[in-house]
Specification:
- The complex is a heterodimer of chains A (253) and B (347).
- Chain A has 9 helices and 10 strands.
- By secondary structure, chain A is α/β, with parallel strands linked by helices.
- In chain A, strand 9 and strand 10 form a beta hairpin.
- In chain B, strand 2 and strand 3 form a beta hairpin.
- In chain B, helix 12 packs parallel to helix 14.
- Classes of the chains: A alpha/beta (253), B mainly alpha (347).
- Chains A and B meet through helix 2, helix 3, helix 4 and helix 5 of A and helix 1, helix 10 and helix 16 of B.
- The structure holds adenosine-5'-diphosphate and magnesium ion (MG).
Chain lengths: 253, 347
């Protein structure tokens, strides 16, 4: 119940993780560590396997080899709800809400499924207000603008008071003006709940602003690790992005 | 406290009632059936009321599974398990207490549903439909083949009348009272069960991947729903066997599953009232137009197509929408939230 009091959780370890779908090798031998309460950026061109990685860590897919650990507990291949119960909660690249239900009921559902008290929403009130969810409290999720739906989905993940958040391109599809919401969201998660955050993102500005460290996935391998400043200036990283056809998802082509 | 926090706190104090109006109306209508024997002794009318209540209770099995977006053809199999359990208990073991029999008619199918559910609840969409239909065919076959237990093609005949605290319930009006009691139990269980877990069921219906990612163990709720649906169907099976004083395989024909699905969909699958209204309308219509045997599944199939194409919400859904838009022309805002917009810039 009192997540803020036990801020220091366990680190998330990905160890020599590989994934293949039949003959298609998505990535191979990827290892990294997300320290408790830390923030790690993950970048890579479309199709690099970032969403697949989140699916594996959350338990939706099993890795082909390697393992995922939360502290000393091995969690790969465990049911998604089990991992969520351990405090490992993911968001979705596309909007994900319960359609036909109001903002209020969506948030209440998240709290119920995570066995959290309604009062969590009072703590989240400043964020809910900033995102514009309070003024839309009794509207159905599916009639909200895309950006609001996305923020609702993200807020539902946060309302479970996770210890580790896996965010799959939270800024994708948001207007430029709405992107500061993501800064506020991640800041709040770290400050108030002590969340560790794995941030998959295409918005390099956002990555530069927020992440002390990033890893780069390309061609099935982890090609670089380090601070955004150095990693994003490396030639192989720039090539990977140009090869992938985009540097920013607002690019014209 | 900031303005935003105060506004959210205010919203959190608003509580939805446990039962909606539809649950109350439904339970009220079923209760009214207790009064029928005091109003009329017309055997035609009594038997009609019996058939409606049994049909409605059976269709609850469909209603419950539709909460999870699963279309179940398994209702007749669990009715059969409930009905034959009662017949075996009363004929072979001399149990006639209606409460004991009712408990058995609920629990035995519910327990059978747990291992079956473990096998088939991982299926979705058409695969689930197909397997539940096959299940009904298999149960039908077993009823014919397991003659030592089920009496085979003769069925189990000559059941003694059931007793309620020692009072024998034997004539037409007593049979209706028994049926009404079983139907009320079925509706009450269904209403409580579906309302108690309404967030869970709605989430599984709309987006089970999201629900799991927030921590919901979806399989537990599916297994529970399948078991409760089986138990409620079992109560309907009891009522049917009690009315006919016979347990016979033809009472649980696989094609009858289409009827139960039709009641729920035509009445409106969004609300428990839909199942009751669908059964009332369609069982009466079947009788009125003297539809028999093979004809009704065909016509019912046609009716499902019409409803699916023209009025998804069925009778109750359509009426509710009409009433809402009517009232909407008046003053009442849809939800008081709109009137209580958070003042901007205060936070
Ligand atoms: N369930 C699946 N079955 C087969 N191939 C898949 C599946 N999920 C993803 N892929 C493939 O794996 C690759 C990586 O996809 P994804 O993880 O979505 O990339 P990203 O999120 O980095 O854009 C793509 O080539 C995609 O087509
Ligand atoms: Mg992706």
């Amino acid at each position: 119940m009192n997540a803020a009091a036990e801020i220091q959780g366990e680190a998330l370890y990905a160890e020599r993780m590989s994934k293949a779908f039949g003959g298609l090798k998505v990535f191979h031998d990827v290892s990294f560590t997300l320290p408790p309460g830390g923030l790690l950026g993950v970048i890579g061109p479309n199709g690099a396997g970032k969403t697949t990685m989140i699916n594996i860590i959350s338990g939706r897919l099993a890795p082909s080899s390697g393992q995922v650990r939360l502290g000393d507990t091995r969690i790969d291949g465990r049911p998604v709800y089990d991992n969520a119960g351990r405090g490992l909660v993911r968001s979705f690249q596309q909007t994900a809400t319960f359609s036909g239900y109001t903002v209020s009921d969506n948030l209440r559902s998240a709290l119920r499924f995570a066995r959290r008290d309604l009062s969590v929403l009072e703590r989240l009130a400043p964020l809910l207000d900033q995102f514009g969810l309070v003024e839309n409290w009794n509207r159905h999720a599916e009639v909200l603008p895309y950006g609001l739906q996305k923020m609702l989905g993200l807020t539902m993940a946060l309302a479970t008071q996770p210890r580790i958040l896996l965010l799959d391109e939270p800024a994708a599809g948001l207007e430029k003006s709405e992107r500061s919401n993501i800064d506020a969201y991640i800041g709040f998660a770290q400050r108030e709940f002590g969340c560790g955050v794995l941030l998959v993102e295409h918005d390099m500005e956002l990555i530069r602003r927020l992440c002390p460290d990033v890893i780069v996935l390309d061609g099935g391998r982890l090609i670089a690790t380090g601070s955004p400043g150095e990693v994003l200036n490396r030639k192989d990283v720039i090539d990977a992005y140009l090869g992938g056809g985009e540097e920013d998802d607002d690019a014209e082509h | 406290m900031t303005t935003a926090t105060a506004t959210v706190s205010g919203y959190l104090k608003q509580k939805a009632p446990f039962f909606s109006g539809h649950e109350w109306i439904t339970l009220g209508i079923v209760l009214l059936a207790f009064a029928i024997p005091t109003l009329t002794a017309n055997p035609q009318f009594l038997s009609q009321a019996n058939l409606i209540l049994i049909a409605a209770t059976a269709a609850l099995g469909v209603y419950i599974m539709l909460r999870l977006d699963l279309m179940s053809f398994a209702v007749p199999s669990f009715m059969a398990i409930g009905g034959y359990t009662v017949a075996v208990l009363s004929l072979r073991l001399g149990v006639t207490d209606v409460i004991v029999l009712g408990l058995a008619a609920f629990l035995v199918p519910a327990l059978c549903a747990i291992p079956l559910g473990w096998l088939i609840l991982r299926l979705k969409g058409v695969y689930f439909v197909l397997v539940t239909f096959v299940l009904t065919e298999i149960v039908q076959l077993l009823l014919f083949e397991a003659a030592p237990l089920t009496g085979g093609s003769n069925g189990l005949v000559g059941m003694p009348a059931v007793r309620f605290f020692g009072i024998e319930l034997w004539d037409n009006s007593h049979v209706l009272l028994t049926t009404t009691g079983l139907a009320f139990a079925g509706f009450l269980i269904t209403a409580i069960f579906t309302r108690r877990f309404r967030y869970e069921f709605a989430a599984i219906e709309k987006n089970d991947v999201l629900a799991e990612s927030l921590g919901l163990a979806c399989w537990k709720y599916k297994a529970m729903a399948f078991a409760v649906a089986a138990g409620v169907s079992g109560l309907a099976g009891f009522a049917l066997v009690n009315m006919l004083m016979t347990a016979h395989p033809t009472s649980f024909a696989p094609m009858s599953s289409v009827n139960y699905i039709t009641y729920t969909i035509v009445g409106g699958k969004g609300s428990i009232l839909g199942t009751l209204v669908g059964a009332i309308l369609l069982v009466s219509a079947t009788d009125y137009f003297a539809l028999r045997g093979e004809l009704s599944p065909g016509l019912f199939g046609l009716l499902i197509i019409v409803v699916t194409l023209l009025a998804r919400g069925g009778v109750i859904g359509t009426v509710t929408t009409l009433v809402r838009s009517w009232r909407g022309k008046g003053m009442r805002p849809l939800a008081d939230g709109a009137a209580r917009k958070a003042p901007k810039g205060g936070a």
